[in-house]
């Protein structure tokens, strides 16, 4: 008689690895350093309603780094507004 135990254990391990891979891209803490708009290329929004545990703004720098920031901080909103203004200026030039 073939035991199902090894198959179930294998499936459980695959599931655990898959879940941990999904969380790999989540911010788990915020930067303590205030950043400047000129260093940023863009941003995305992470919500705790999805797979991640905290709400965050993920800034993408000109140097290819990702910075996790607290959306309740004023400097974070200032950078978002700066980036939006930059997009508006580019759109007007087109």
UniProtKB/TrEMBL annotation:
Keywords: Chemotaxis, Cytokine, Disulfide bond, Inflammatory response, Secreted, Signal. SMART domains: SCY. InterPro entries: Chemokine_b/g/d, Chemokine_IL8-like_dom, Interleukin_8-like_sf. It is found in: Secreted. Residues 23-83 form the Chemokine interleukin-8-like domain. GO terms for molecular function: chemokine activity. One of its GO terms (cellular component) is extracellular space. Residues 1-21 form the signal peptide. This is C-C motif chemokine 20-like. One of its GO terms (biological process) is immune response. PANTHER family: C-C MOTIF CHEMOKINE (PTHR12015:SF190), SMALL INDUCIBLE CYTOKINE A (PTHR12015). It comes from Erpetoichthys calabaricus (Rope fish).
